[in-house]
């Protein structure tokens, strides 16, 4: 696994973010992905330097070697994950603006890179002692995307229905392996059924959408809404994987992964009928 810390190293050394066009500073130009490529970076508070340095060390330790929090689930559902992650690339940065904290972006050579902002990680953790667990969840999520992209990528120029299927499957599994044991999403959690019904209702509406503008809006909301529970595709997919694991264990998650993303949204809406 290749680790890029150029942006963070420059900030820790100088107290300033490198210029966006400086060597190695490309992650600062792509925080918003395809939505708004010119979104400006945010200069971190200089007083955070000691915490950022500690977070950098914690994440570096979690990556070498990387071990998922739920290794048994990965070994069953994603049995070749080690092969897929052998050449994975990770950039640890500072300067990404809210609400962006981590994501897969492409470097100037077109290679997919997981970018994780350490200041955003500190904010999510809430306290220094919680950084390792927060980092683990983010890494499990983002590295799952890498494994799924290697396993069953979305073709360039795919139509709307395929893109919706793919995001429900891909984001659903990534969220499940990253936070599937969290009390808020575990089967039986207070409010879980209501959130699932809402996510499914919105997924059904998205599935029926017509017209380029409406479909684009639904795809943006699918995994990039401001509020977590508003990311209907993520929530619907995540809870479907959670239900499957509750009913049939890791093997049931494996079966959903093996069935692939094609038609997955309709299967989730139908209660995960056979592929």
Using only C-alpha atoms, the radius of gyration works out to: 19 Å
Please identify the structural class as seen in this structure. alpha/beta
Major sheet strand order: 1-2-4-3
How many discrete domains?
A: 2
Structure, described:
With 275 residues, the chain is of the alpha/beta class. It folds into 2 domains: 2-151, no CATH class; 160-269, no CATH class. Helix content is 54%, strand content 7%. It is built from 11 helices and 4 strands; from the N terminus they run βααααβββααααααα. It has helices spanning 6-14, 49-63, 71-77, 81-85, 118-125, 131-151, 160-179, 192-208, 212-224, 232-259, 264-269, and strands at 2-4, 89-93, 102-106, 112-117. It has a 4-stranded mixed sheet. The protein starts with a strand and ends in a 6-residue tail after the last helix.
List keywords for this structure.
2 domains, 4-stranded mixed β-sheet, globular
Give me the secondary-structure topology:
Layout: E1 2-4, H1 6-14, H2 49-63, H3 71-77, H4 81-85, E2 89-93, E3 102-106, E4 112-117, H5 118-125, H6 131-151, H7 160-179, H8 192-208, H9 212-224, H10 232-259, H11 264-269
Parallel strand pairs: 1-2, 2-4
Antiparallel strand pairs: 3-4
Helix pairs in contact: 2-5, 2-6, 3-10, 5-6, 6-7, 7-9, 7-10, 8-10
Q: Summarize this, please?
A:
The protein is built from eleven helices and four strands; from the N terminus they run βααααβββααααααα. With 275 residues, the chain is α/β, with parallel strands linked by helices. It is globular.
């Amino acid at each position: 696994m290749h680790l890029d810390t150029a942006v963070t190293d420059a900030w820790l050394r100088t107290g300033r973010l490198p210029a966006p066009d400086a060597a190695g500073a490309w992650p600062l130009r792509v925080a918003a992905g395809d939505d708004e490529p010119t979104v400006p970076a945010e200069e971190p508070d200089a007083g955070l330097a000691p915490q950022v340095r500690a977070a950098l060390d914690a994440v570096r330790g979690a990556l070498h070697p990387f071990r998922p929090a739920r290794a048994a689930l990965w070994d069953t559902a994603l049995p070749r994950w080690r092969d897929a992650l052998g050449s994975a690339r990770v950039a640890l940065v500072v300067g990404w603006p809210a609400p962006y904290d981590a994501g897969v972006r492409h470097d100037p050579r077109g290679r997919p890179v997981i970018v994780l902002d350490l200041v955003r990680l500190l904010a999510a953790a809430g306290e220094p002692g919680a950084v390792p667990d927060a980092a683990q969840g983010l890494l499990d999520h983002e590295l799952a995307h890498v494994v799924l992209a290697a396993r069953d990528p979305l073709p360039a120029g795919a139509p709307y229905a395929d893109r919706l299927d793919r995001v429900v499957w891909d984001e659903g599994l990534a969220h499940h392996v990253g936070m599937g044991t969290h009390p808020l999403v575990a089967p039986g959690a207070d409010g879980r059924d209501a959130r699932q019904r809402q996510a499914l209702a919105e997924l059904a509406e998205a599935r029926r959408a017509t017209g380029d503008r409406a479909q684009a809006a639904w795809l943006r909301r699918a995994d990039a809404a401001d509020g977590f529970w508003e990311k209907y595709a993520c929530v619907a997919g995540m809870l479907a994987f959670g239900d499957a694991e509750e009913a049939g264990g890791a093997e049931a998650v494996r079966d959903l992964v093996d069935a692939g993303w094609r038609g997955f949204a309709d299967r989730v809406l139908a209660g995960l009928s056979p592929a």
